[in-house]
């Protein structure tokens, strides 16, 4: 991401920077980039995690095993 063109700082009485004023276009660029980053992070997290479901055949096998253990047909 490019650096900010000309940020303006709001300071407290001691001269400490406490806020930044940006051109609305720069703000929107930052928000768009943040949104894109969040989308990428969510995608990466989803790809990393194992699915929280069982394949059909495995689920049916588990159901049959539980039913047999409980004396059900």
TrEMBL record:
Pfam families hit by this protein: RelB-like
InterPro entries from the UniProt entry: RelB-like
Name under which the protein is recorded: Antitoxin
Organism: Chloroherpeton thalassium (strain ATCC 35110 / GB-78)
């Amino acid at each position: 991401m490019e650096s900010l063109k000309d940020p303006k700082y709001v300071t407290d009485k001691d001269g400490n920077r406490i806020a930044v004023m940006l051109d609305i276009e720069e703000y929107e660029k930052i928000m768009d980039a943040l949104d894109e980053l969040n989308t990428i992070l969510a995608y990466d997290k989803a790809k990393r995690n194992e699915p929280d479901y069982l394949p059909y055949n495995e689920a049916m096998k588990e159901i049959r095993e539980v039913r047999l253990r409980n004396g059900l047909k």
